[in-house]
Each structure stands twice: as C-alpha cells, then as structure tokens.
TrEMBL record:
Gene3D superfamilies: Cullin, Chain C, Domain 2. This is Rtt101p. SMART domains: Cullin_Nedd8. It comes from the Eukaryota. It comes from Saccharomyces arboricola (strain H-6 / AS 2.3317 / CBS 10644). Belongs to the cullin family. Residues 429-715 form the Cullin family profile domain. InterPro entries: Cullin-like_AB (IPR059120), Cullin_homology (IPR016158), Cullin_homology_sf (IPR036317), Cullin_neddylation_domain (IPR019559). PROSITE patterns: CULLIN_2 (PS50069). The lineage of its organism: Eukaryota, Fungi, Dikarya, Ascomycota, Saccharomycotina.
Length: 843
C-alpha cells in the first residue's frame, strides 16, 4: 500500500479543485507567444485552448466507452483538428525576430536592432510548447487516477488498464498536434528527445516519469504489485488477458527502467521472489501434480507482458521447481510421505509426476552430470541421516525401502545401493541385513494378521501381506546369490525353531514361500506391471534399458527361483516329518530330515565330521536310536526313495531347549536355547556342583578348543562361574538380561569366532564346533561384489591384472584362486562379460 496520509492526499487535491489547474500553461503560452504579430497570437491561443479543452473533456471521465460514444464531443475534436494542424504549420513556418544590441563607434549612439530567428529554433520552441502542455495534461490525469484509487497499489494495478485506455484516448486526441514536428521535421528528431522512440513511446516514457516522480521510492512497489495482480489472477484465460494492458508491457516498449533494471529483468526478479515466497508454489505434491498446468499458466502470463519473455520465464519456473538439489530432495520426500491411510500403503507419486521430468529438464540444458550429483547427494544425506551415529539398521532399511519405492524408473537406484552397501560394508552384508529386516517385518505382519484379521479369508490375508511387505527394489535383488541368503536364513531358523508349537513353524512357514515369491517374482524384479511396461515403453523409450532386465537375466533368475522353490519344498517336507513324529511319539524330539543337496553348503560337513565321537546326555541316545529305527522302517515299508539313502546326523546343527530354575516375570521357567554340544556340557551340572575342565572333557569327549568356547559362552551369560581353582559351578544367583529373553527363551550364543575354529586333537578327532557359516563363502560374496563394482565404473573395461589390483585395494586376505573362482562365477551368471578382442572385463 502507498502512504495514505492526509497530507499526501491534500497534496494531490491541490492540483484538482473544480476545473483543471492550468496556471502553469500560461507560462508556456507567454513564452511562445509573439506579441508583435496578432495573427500568430491567435494561432497560439487556439492551440493553447485546444489542449485545455482536451483536458477538461477527459479529466473526469469514468467510462471511456461513454466518451467514445459521445458524438458531440467526438465531432467537436474532429472539426477542430484541421484548424489546429493549420496552426501548427503556420507557427512552425512563421518568421520571428528577436532584439539584440550592437556596438558602434564611441561617437555613435547605441541603436536597438532585430535579428531574424532561424526556423530550426522556431520548430524546437513549438515542440517544447507541445511537450510542456502534454506533460501537464499527463500530470493532471495521474493525480486524478491516484486519488480515485485511494493511493492503493493494488487498486492502481486493478484499474490500470482502464486508466491507460483513457490515456491512449487523450494521446490520440492530441496525436496530430504533438507528432506534427517529428513527422514533418525528421532531421531534428534526435534534438526533440525521441531518439529511438516513437512519439507515443516518448509520451509513455513521460507518463512513467510522472508516476515515478509522484511515488518516489514506492514506484518499484507499485510495479511489483502490478505484476502480482496478473500472477495471482484466477481463472486466467487468453480471452481475459486480451483485454488487459499491463503496466510492464508499456514500460518495456518505451525502455523505462525500474531500479536500474530493464522491465524484463525486473519481471524475472519479481517472479523469482514470488516463486520462493508464494505458499501455493511450495515444493509439495499438489504443485508437482499440476506442474504442466502451472508451467502453461506461467508461459501465458509471460506472453501477456511480451511473448519474447516466455522462454526465460519458463526456465525460471523450471529452475525453481526442478533444477536444484532441494527440489529433488523434497520431491523424493513427498513420494515417501504419500501414504494412503485407508489402504495402508504408499501410492505411486509417479502416477502424476516423475523424476524423469527432473532428468529431462537437466538433460535439455546439458546438466545431466549435475542432476546425478544432486540425486546422489540427496540420497546420501537421507540414508546417512537414517543410519545415524547409532547405526540403526532398522531405520536405515525403512528409509531405503521408501526411497526405492519412489524411484519407479530407477533414476537413482544405483545411488541407493551404493550408499547402502558403503554404510554396511559390502553388498553381501547389505543383503544379509535386508534378509533380517524383511523377515522381522514378515513376522510382525503375520502376527498382526493372526491377532487382528482372523476373520479375513486367506486370499485377503495374503493380499494384506503382499501390500505391506518391505520389498526392496534394488539391483542386488537380481544377483543369482540373492535367494541363497534367504535359503540360509530359512534353514537356520528352521533348525533353531524346530518345535511344532513355535510361532515360526505354525504361522511363518506356511506363508513364507508365498511372501518370498512376491519379493522374487519377475514383475517385482523389473518393478513394472504389464500395463505400466507398455505405457513406459511407449513414453520413455530412451530410458527403457535403465529399469528392464535383459531377457537372458530374467531366464537365469527364473532358474534360480525355481531352485529356491525346490529348496523350500524340502523345508516344508522336513517340518511336516517333525510334526508327524511328534504327534505319534509324543516326545520332545522334533526331527528334521533334508536331502543333503538341498542343505545350503555353508552348513554342510564332510562325511568324516558326521561320525558321533562325543557322549550324548542320558536318554538322548535311546531317543535317537528309536527315531532311526522307526524312520528306516517307515520308509522301507513305503518303498520310498528315502529308503535307498543313508541318514547322517548333522550333530553340529542340533539345538536343544533346556529348562532352568529361574522364574521369569510371566511366571514360567526360563528356557535356554543351546546347541547340542552346549547341552552336553550344561546337563552335567545337574548331578555335580563343581566340575573341572578335565572332568568335563572326559565325560563329554568334546574337542578341547571347542569345549573352551562352550564354557566361555556360559561364563559370558553368567550361567556358570569359574572358581579360583579353575573349576566351574552353576551361578545360584543368575539373573538374565530380560531384554534378550524372547517368548520365555534365552539363546546362549557361542562366541563370534566359533565358526573359525577348526580344532584337531592329537588323536585325529574332528572339531565338534557349532558351524553355522563359512568364511570362504563370505569371501566369495565380497569378491564378487568388489569385482562387479570395479568393472561397473569403467566404460572401457579392465584387464585381468588391473582388475585384480583394483579389487585388492578394496579388500584383503583372499587368494588368487578365490579371485579366479569369483570372476568365473560372475562370467557364468553374466554379470560380467569378457571382450575377447581387447581381453578386458566389462559390466
């Protein structure tokens, strides 16, 4: 708003009392008047009166249409114009003299003489008279307009078009007179002040000079308000804009600058400030959904001022919403937050907008490198923030899953995978952690379905699971080794929780396969439904290769997942056998029988390690022998293939639940989850208060180094105590860490280096350590990840020696043979190819 003080209004009102104040015009009149020539006096007076008549007839006009339709006034101006033009001709061609003093000799008297004025001076004088009269008319109209709008910037902007139309009418009425000299005397045009401007542009310039002189420092504010008047106009159409004459368009035509800026630069500056401050143009979903509409509207507005501004105005709009890291980061965040409470799932932001539009905007400006950098920075910040100093893996994968869900076109999936693997140490560790994360969520979802959705049909239950599973859409899901991580986890959980009453056996196993197939199935891997695939293939053909897997890869993956299904069926068969045996025998023994080739290799042992050379606790031997007898008898009677196979006990994988005397808060006895070998040791203390290491060795026949680790596990949990004489005893005041107790059970974990122990006693007896993994397997996975990462970053590929050195810089402690094996597997699985012509390896 302008200054609305009474003094300011009074200042304007001083010019407008009743009739127009034309006192200043008399000065111009007398300056140009030629008193000695009555004929010229009459002509000057007539022109002077015509200017006054024009002002008096237009100053109080409120509706220009009425003035244009007033035939009497129109006729008056039309009838007077020929005479006024004749006066212009007479006055510019007249002869006029001015006195000057001449000095004679000292004896002669001074004599007054007259000198004939040059026509050039007469013409300039006439034009000065016309300019001055026009300027006074402009000032009167401006002041009247300001008072009418109550000095409000918004009202002035709103009524500007009607004022300007009146101004154009006034200039049109005076046009033949004020343009007489420029038209008829073009040689002195520059001296008249027009230079590169037309006559009407010149008076437009004077109009804005007048407005600026009245407003002072508030003038830029008025221009800004005039721009906002159109920017905020709603609705806006070509029909509406055709009737508008914006202030900035006229200023641009007459090259009038605002704050030392050209009209275009001032518009761009105002538009940029508007984009940054206007809440309706904030970085939110609605803005991106209506992006094309807003961009079209922005172009329409720019064309209202000047069509040549459209390109720059749209560039500014695109730059504000697309060409910066903040917008990319905010858009990704918007996609994460678009959660449908009713359907309990994220909906696809890509339905309305796509990161591909960001990419295209950058690519069109040769800024693709900056786009990739912005995406990578945004992903890095989000992932690092989620992981935090506390190394919160759960929160990390929550973030990663949501980020991948937003990126349906695989724009930044490589960045997600790179930073995820970088934070967790390697691709293998990232997959391993994801498996734990996936299973944790699956268990929670199954529990929720069981407790709160029992009335739903199985199909609806499965649909709920599919919709809410945290499916990770990254490339490493396509690794041939990816299913093997799930195989290990499922196998391990099966042998750890092999109890028909456990939630895993009763609730998880039945739905595990279906849920994993949802994760593994082809359309999830490519992240496209059939309908989307057809749409994207038509619309985004140049980018198809980024997110569609090659046919060969899909075929290989199908083989891998078919193998996984076979593995899973073997798990189900083993669990069903255990359930059946429990039902018939009513014992606490839950046997699991697998085909050896279906057991993950990291859990297998050589035949020599399968022989029982330790002492089973009392009662277990007879239970085991009874089971073996019944198993062979049943299979022989059924004439099954199993009867033709040998049955080997995997002692290192046997687990037991041992009841303790400690009472947990729910009133039951705490159960220890132990390996078979831990059980063999702990059960000795039922009959002995103190036992030495030597006596434990003799009674269990366990390997010495393995026994040390087992005892250490009990000492770590304070289940056993060691006396000063190196004997061991039960801790009578044992209190478990209840945070580690789950479902009334405490798992006593062996020390981390257990899997690395390969103890061999002097008598040749094998180590009885509880193996649950293989270092060699992990080394293979790490090597494959490093090789893939190395060749991925080299467009021209890497030779064998350079590839080996590059991998060696990333990890240590592997042999040449292990490196060659990993490379061979990658070549076999087609993750790496070899160019025979250059002898290089490529991704």
């Amino acid at each position: 708003m302008m200054n609305n003080s009474a003094s300011k209004k009074d200042e304007y009102a001083g010019y407008l009392n009743g009739e127009p104040n034309m006192n200043d015009t008399f000065g111009l009149y007398h300056q140009f008047n030629d008193e000695k020539t009555p004929k010229y006096q009459t002509r000057i007076t007539e022109l002077h009166d015509f200017f006054r008549l024009t002002l008096s007839e237009t100053i109080n006009v409120t509706d220009l249409k009425e003035l244009e339709c007033d035939n009497e006034k129109v006729a008056k101006f039309r009838d007077l114009m020929p005479r006024m033009l004749n006066n212009c001709r007479e006055l510019t061609q007249r002869k006029s003299y001015i006195p000057f003093d001449s000095e004679a000799s000292e004896s002669d008297e001074r004599q007054k003489k007259f000198q004939l004025l040059h026509q050039h001076q007469i013409v300039l004088g006439f034009q000065e008279f016309c300019n001055g009269m026009t300027k006074l008319i402009i000032e009167e109209h401006v002041l009247k307009f300001f008072l009418k709008c109550d000095c409000s910037h918004d009202l002035i902007s709103k009524h500007w078009t009607s004022f300007y139309n009146l101004f154009e009418y006034v200039l049109g009425a005076l046009g033949p007179i004020i343009s007489y000299v420029p038209v008829n005397y073009p040689m002195i045009r520059k001296e008249l002040g027009f230079k590169d401007l037309t006559v009407f542009q010149y008076y437009h310039f004077k109009l804005f000079e007048c407005i600026k002189s009245k407003l002072g420092k508030e003038f830029p504010t008025l221009v800004t308000a005039s721009i906002h008047h159109y920017v905020r106009m709603f609705p806006i159409t070509n029909i509406i804009l055709e009737k508008e004459v914006p202030m900035l368009r006229i200023m641009s035509n007459c090259n009038f600058r605002v704050e030392s800026l050209s009209p275009k630069d001032f518009y761009m500056k105002t538009l940029k400030d508007y984009f940054n401050k206007e809440p309706t143009l904030g970085l939110k979903l609605e803005t991106f959904k209506n992006f094309k509409v807003l961009l079209t509207r922005n172009a329409l507005l720019a064309s209202l001022f000047l069509p040549e501004w459209v390109s720059d105005a749209n560039d500014l709009f695109i730059s504000h919403l697309l060409l910066n890291k903040k917008s990319i980061s905010e858009y990704i965040e918007i996609g994460k937050d678009t959660y449908d409470e009713e359907k309990k799932r994220y909906f696809r932001t890509e339905t309305y907008f796509s990161l591909l539009m960001f990419r295209n905007a950058f690519e069109a400006r040769n800024m693709l490198k900056e786009f990739k950098g912005f995406c990578d920075d945004a992903i890095s910040e989000k992932i690092s923030s989620a992981y935090g100093l506390n190394r919160d893996v759960e929160k990390l994968f929550d973030e990663v899953v949501q980020l991948a869900n937003v990126d349906h076109l695989k724009i930044y999936s490589d960045s997600i995978e790179y930073h995820l693997c970088d934070l967790l140490g390697s691709t293998s560790k990232a997959i391993e952690q994801y498996v734990k994360y996936f299973e944790s969520h699956l268990f929670k979802l199954v529990k929720k379905v069981k407790t709160t959705m029992a009335e739903l049909s199985r199909d609806n239950k499965m649909k709920y699971l599919y919709d809410n599973l945290p499916i990770l859409r990254l490339k490493f899901v396509n690794l041939p080794t990816f299913p093997s991580f799930f195989e290990r986890s499922i196998f391990r959980k099966t042998i750890l929780q092999s109890d028909q009453n456990s939630a895993f056996i009763k609730d998880i196993i039945p739905v595990y396969k279906d849920c994993l197939m949802e994760l593994f199935k082809e359309r999830i891997i490519t992240n496209m439904s059939q309908e989307e695939e057809l749409r994207y293939r038509d619309q985004y053909q140049p980018y198809i290769s980024q997110f569609f897997q090659p046919v060969e890869m899909i075929a290989d993956l199908k083989i891998k997942y078919t193998s996984f299904l076979s593995f899973y069926e073997n798990i189900e068969a083993a669990v069903n056998l255990g359930k059946k045996y429990n039902e018939n025998d009513h014992s606490s023994f839950f046997p699991l029988v697998f085909d050896r080739e279906k057991i993950p290799k990291v859990f297998q042992q050589t035949n020599g390690e399968l022989e029982k050379d330790f002492i089973l606790p009392q009662g277990m031997d007879s239970t085991w022998n009874t089971f073996l007898s019944n198993y062979h008898k049943d299979n022989k009677a059924q004439n099954s293939d199993s009867s033709k196979k040998d049955l080997y006990p995997m002692w290192n994988l046997h687990h037991c639940e041992v009841e303790s005397s400690y009472i947990i808060p729910d009133g039951g006895c705490l159960l220890f989850e132990l390996t078979l070998f831990q059980t063999c040791v702990l059960i000795l203390f039922n009959d002995n208060d103190h036992l030495t290491l030597q006596s434990i060795t003799e009674r269990t026949k366990l390997a010495y180094k393995d026994l040390i680790l087992i005892l250490k596990s009990f000492l770590n949990y304070k289940i056993l105590l060691r006396d000063s004489n190196n004997s061991y005893r039960i801790n009578e005041s044992f209190k478990p860490d209840l945070r580690k107790v789950k479902n009334g059970k405490l798992r006593v974990v062996l020390p981390r280096n257990t899997s690395m122990q390969t103890s061999n006693m002097g008598n040749g007896r094998s180590s009885s350590a509880h193996h649950e993994g293989s270092n060699s397997q992990w080394t293979q996975e790490l090597l494959k990840a490093c090789i893939t990462r190395s060749v991925k970053g080299e467009r021209d590929g890497l030779g064998y020696d350079r590839l080996f050195e590059t991998v060696k810089q990333q990890i240590q402690g592997f042999s040449v043979g292990e490196f060659k094996d990993a490379l061979a597997k990658l070549l076999r699985d087609k993750f790496v190819t070899k160019d025979e012509s250059t002898d290089t390896y490529k991704y």
